[in-house]
Amino acid sequence: MDRERLKHKFHHNLQRAKTSVKWVIFATISGIVVGAAGTFFYFCMSFVTDSRADHPWLIWLLPFGGFLIVGAYHILHSENDSGTNLVLSSIHSGDKLPIRMAPLIFVSTLITHLLGGSSGREGAALQLGGSIGNELGKLFRFDEKDKHIMTMCGMSAAFSALFGTPMAAAIFSMEVVSVGIMHYSALVPCVIASLIAHAIAGRFGAEAEIFLLDRIPAFTTGTAIKISLLAALCALVSILFCILLHQAEHLYHKFFPNPYIRIFAGGCIVIALTLMTGSQIYNGSGIALIEPSMEGHARPEMFLLKMLFTAATLGAGFKGGEIVPSFCIGGTFGCLFGNLIGFSPSLCTAAGMTAVFCGVTNSPITSLLISFEMFGYEGMPYFLLTVAFSYMLSGYYGLYHSQKIMYSKFKTNYINKKAE
After folding, report:
1. pTM above the 0.90 mark?
2. Which listed residue, of 244, 337, 360, 419, carries a Cα 20 to 30 Å from 306's Cα?
């Protein structure tokens, strides 16, 4: 009996060892392939962003660039492509994730940024990495559950290569799918893929998004109350941003049922908004808004205008992502808050970025890690409070309707509902 039990235990441990080796190998492959693609995407994005800065007149072509995007999706029979939502639903619902998503989102995001649309790049990275990772799973003939892990590996690798935050990237793909339940089976593969992709990006000169904070105030009861108030307000800002994005898409579809007319109208609206503001600072990802905010120079209307520009762009059908815009919105709002109450605008900018990101993605662990990677560990107690209050008070709103909220934010109740 003991011999049989030992034999069974030996085979069980051997199987575990084989599985571990398998994931080390295939996560490495995923990190190399997706990391290379993500790095190439990074430099393409830098090129189109610089080109638009050098040639501001390109924004007049935005409506016509929209025709190209809609036409490309039509030709490849991806008219109903729901972007990042499809990546998330492919993991928890088994929806098919076609490889054609990778070139489509790659080219469409470049067109959007080249011609002045207001969107991010990390949303595109999640789709790019997820579709490549899923395709690698098919190539290696993995079963459905292992393909889901490969999809998460790809998401982590692309996010890491593009944004330069390997810790946050490794956790984000596991956390964002189902809030309240972490897919820990994907931990080792996602960590390996993320680190390898980060190394590849660094090797070719891709720069991480790192911001230096001024002197961080001593953590006291008074400063804790101030940062908690900022977090609560940022939770409301994140709700407003999610509602605005979803309502903009709904209104575009209501008034412009034809996708070609819809995206052309959206391009015209973005041009009109740009002319009204007299600047292209709100076009593109908006990362240029963060640096002056860190120095305490953010106008009161900046966070609202960035919301409006992003909703007008993405709601019409242009491509990209919402994550960097959420950083810009949170950063400019945080700076405004800090200036109004006279409390470290640079710290409030960093805390605002973290809080709004947490509120729109419902990913508190990722938010905490990304704050450490972007701003350092000295502000840890402030970031910890910011993430906690923003997560709790942002309700069940989110950027992605396919994201599932598995457990209540207020009680230990299983709710299993989609993000609003």
Report:
1. yes
2. 419
